[in-house]
Design a protein that fits this description.
GO terms for molecular function: methyltransferase activity. The chain is an alpha/beta fold. The chain has 20 helices and 19 strands.
């Protein structure tokens, strides 16, 4: 059972007091804050350019007195840390305290262990359980003290990365993989090691601009925000890539363009008709909610389907320039760097209602069809595989013997997987995965891949080697898409569905209620900051937060996906990448069954995406989870990774124990974030840390 989220937080509402007075009072302090900031900037780097649009400077002022703490919407705004009178004395005290505590802990645990072993068998079990809880708490406390004691020495060395790190994606090094002799797609595999981390702050490009808000930002991006050349834009050849135009310093994307023969609107309409529907708007009624787009071009299909309540996640290989994933994310669309050349995707079986592949470069006819077997694993029963390829059974491909051979191979593998070929038009083919399992038993002996044995049919693999067998058939989640509730009812799982995941309905309901209240508080807390450069006039109502002020959110510890659900209930036009840490309880199958997108991830490794790709990073209880489970990384490593993922002027919201939040704030200040600890009314054990990352560009003559 997951712990109740945000218990004790009061309901939504407006911030107390007059915002105009608050802003005027805050602006009086900006001058002194700016002078201090200028001093820091001069000593660190002459090329640091803080954005003038940083609204958190009105809220996060280090000069505020503790007498000015106020309760707002259930949150008590507390003062930032004040520096110690003597740094050396503070460091020495912490070091001595740490050493003393270690000695005491070792002696105490040794004596308590001997005492525990001397207990009678009848009383030993409950005592040992309490002993283990004590050990976990001590590990957490030691980690807190270790991070604090290193804060003023280790954290002050946070420097800016070299310019070549501008688009750095750890764990994906094609050049190094090729030098190791890896070919046949394995050069795109993810390989994390000690050298995969960056211990510096990645700067934004010299001409980086804050992205447009939605829906404008979905269709228009700044060309200097991504690594792509004008030649790459003009020479893009795939169906989805051709849906864009270069216009001075911007790239515009069009769903229907007269400059090309095909367009996304007609293409998606064609897919719906091939399934037997009137148009793509009826896909939701047919049980389709989530789509996995393999080699998505630049996300035009997902952008077109998003307003129709279809959530499309792009997955594509790492590319050093002209990246499909980077540009899709810059448009605010779901995307991940990923390759299944040799490893399974970090997704549970039976995850998506539709899988789409168009001109993606995947050699589907290689390795005995193992790539199609992986597609089958993540495709839900009754789901659709849409394949657009020059190798499809067209008159042109029939005349080419090599293409005809590839088409025959793909068609035969699909038949062995029990897929039903629904329709074929031009170069597009649509298959439907069986809703029942009886087809697998009725196949001829020795034809096609076998059913995975129990030990090889892993529900949620984390980059396991590809399996040449049919997976997911043993899962209790084998439910055809036509038997699931259509969207948006799917987001609220029935008691029967919750039982499959081992979750009690009361726990699920309480989680939803708590998150709805929390999202109201988050939005009320952040919305005045959005309008801080346009304060309201006396007598006006408090401003309503815009729906599009955040386009995408990375939830680093998603639990049941309650944060995602509450954002949608509040009618925020935002999607969430729900991340389930490998060190915690795996609720990712439940999250995906709710119609959301997500992925498994080890937060001691780099997340598979490009820098500056999320508007908000959120984590509830992640620091506690990492403090107990951590062995390979520190809190500082985690914060470097968050900084890499976060867009300039993006927000971070962390909720955790008081001691860990205080440690986190010390790190945040060293990363040049505007940070403030926010106390939660009626909950003294936990606090919020709310931060904003500044816009810091790399040095260039064009600045």
């Amino acid at each position: 059972m997951a712990r109740p989220l945000h218990r004790g937080v009061s309901g939504g509402g407006r911030l107390s007091g007059n915002i105009q007075d608050y802003l005027e009072d805050s602006q009086m302090k900006i001058k002194s804050d700016k002078e201090n900031s200028d001093k820091i900037s001069k000593t660190s780097s002459d090329h640091v350019s803080l954005s003038l649009r940083n609204p958190f400077q009105f809220l996060f002022s280090d000069n505020l007195s503790s007498k000015q703490d106020s309760i707002e919407n259930g949150f008590v705004l507390s003062d930032p840390f004040a520096p110690a009178n003597s740094r050396n004395r503070h460091m020495l005290t912490l070091l001595l305290l740490k050493l003393s505590l270690v000695v005491i802990v070792i002696l105490g645990l040794s004596i308590s262990l001997l005492w525990t072993l001397s207990l009678t068998p009848a009383s030993r079990s409950p005592v040992i359980r309490g002993y283990r809880r004590l050990q976990e708490q001590l590990v957490s406390d030691l980690w807190d003290i270790g991070e604090l004691s290193l804060g003023t020495t280790r954290f002050k060395e946070s420097e800016f990365c070299p310019l070549e790190f501008e688009n750095f994606v750890p764990c994906f090094n094609v050049t190094e993989n090729l030098e190791l002799g890896l070919t046949e797609g394995k050069e795109f595999d993810r390989r994390c090691g000690p050298m995969s981390k960056q211990n510096c702050l990645i700067l934004a490009p010299p001409k980086y601009k804050i992205p447009h808000r939605w829906p404008t930002g979905r269709d228009v991006i700044w060309i200097d925000n991504v690594k792509i050349t004008a030649q790459e834009v003009l020479s893009s050849g795939s169906l989805t890539k051709r849906m864009m135009m270069l216009d001075e310093d911007q790239i515009s994307f069009s769903f229907a363009s007269s400059m090309v023969d095909d367009n996304i609107e007609d293409y998606s309409h064609q897919i719906a008709e091939m399934i037997g529907l009137r148009n793509e708007s009826y896909l939701v009624q047919a049980g389709v909610r989530t789509v996995l787009d393999i080699g998505c071009g630049y996300g035009s299909l997902g952008a077109h389907l998003f307003p129709k309540h279809l959530l499309t996640m792009c997955i594509a290989n790492y590319e050093s320039s002209g990246s499909q994933v980077e540009i899709a994310l810059e448009r605010g669309l779901p995307a991940l760097v990923g390759s299944f050349a040799s490893k399974q995707l970090p997704l549970p079986s039976l995850s998506f209602d539709m899988i789409h592949s168009a001109w993606d470069g995947v050699e589907w006819d290689k390795k005995d069809g193992i790539y199609l077997i992986e597609v089958d694993r993540v495709l839900r029963p009754g789901g659709y595989f849409v394949w657009t390829s020059p190798f499809a059974n067209t008159p042109a491909s029939v005349r080419d013997k090599e293409n005809l051979k590839k088409w025959e191979f793909v068609r035969n593998i699909a038949k062995d997987l029990c897929w039903d070929l629904l329709s074929q038009q031009d170069k597009t083919v649509v298959w439907k995965k069986p809703s029942k399992k009886n087809c697998y038993a009725s196949r001829k002996h020795g034809s096609g891949p076998l059913i995975c044995k129990e030990g090889r049919d892993v529900e949620s693999p984390y980059y396991h080697p590809l399996e040449a067998c049919i997976g997911g058939t043993r899962s209790r989640r084998w439910i055809p898409i036509e038997e699931r509730a259509s969207w948006p009812s799917r987001a609220t799982l029935s008691s029967k569905e919750l039982a499959v995941h081992g979750v009690l309905p009361d726990d699920f309901m309480e989680d939803n209620i708590n998150w709805k209240s929390t999202v109201r508080d988050y939005w009320s807390l952040l919305s005045p900051l959005i309008f801080s450069d346009h304060p309201k006039r006396p007598g006006d109502e408090d401003p309503i937060p815009p729906n599009y002020m955040v386009r995408n959110v990375l939830d680093m510890n998603a639990h049941f996906g309650g944060f995602n659900s509450a954002l949608l209930d509040a009618r925020k036009s935002v999607w969430v990448m729900n991340v389930v840490p490998t060190s915690g309880v795996n609720h990712l199958p439940l999250i995906l069954d709710r119609g959301f997108v997500g992925v498994l991830h080890d937060w001691c490794e780099a997340f598979p995406t490009y820098p500056r790709t999320y508007d908000m990073v959120h984590a509830d209880g992640l620091l506690s989870l990492q403090s107990v489970k951590q062995s390979r990384c520190s809190m500082l490593d985690l914060f470097y990774e968050i900084d890499r993922l976060l867009r300039p002027e993006g927000w971070v919201i962390l909720r955790d124990t008081t001691s860990l939040i205080e440690s986190a704030r010390a790190i945040a200040s060293k990363l040049k974030w505007e940070a403030r600890v926010v106390e939660i009314e009626s909950n003294n054990d936990e606090k919020l840390l709310v931060c904003q990352k500044p816009l810091i560009r790399s040095q260039a003559n064009s600045l």
